[in-house]
Design a protein that fits this description.
Strand content: 15-25%
Radius of gyration: 12 Å
């Protein structure tokens, strides 16, 4: 199974956040939503989770 990546560095923020979350898609969406709420003061809504899900990339694994 391909793991997914959420990388805060791809989005401008006042805190210049560098967090990267890697895992199975549902795990990453859940963790990224919790991070967005606790660090970036977003509201945890279905729209936020959809936006997070739409920005996920597949993990690039060195071979």
């Amino acid at each position: 199974m391909t793991r997914k990546v959420a990388d805060c560095r791809k989005f401008p923020s006042e805190s210049n956040c560098t967090l990267t979350i890697i895992g199975e898609e549902d795990e990453v969406v859940r963790a990224a939503a919790e991070h967005a709420v606790s660090v970036h003061q977003h509201q945890d809504t279905p729209e936020l989770r959809d936006e997070i899900r739409s920005t996920l990339e597949e993990e690039k694994v060195a071979t």
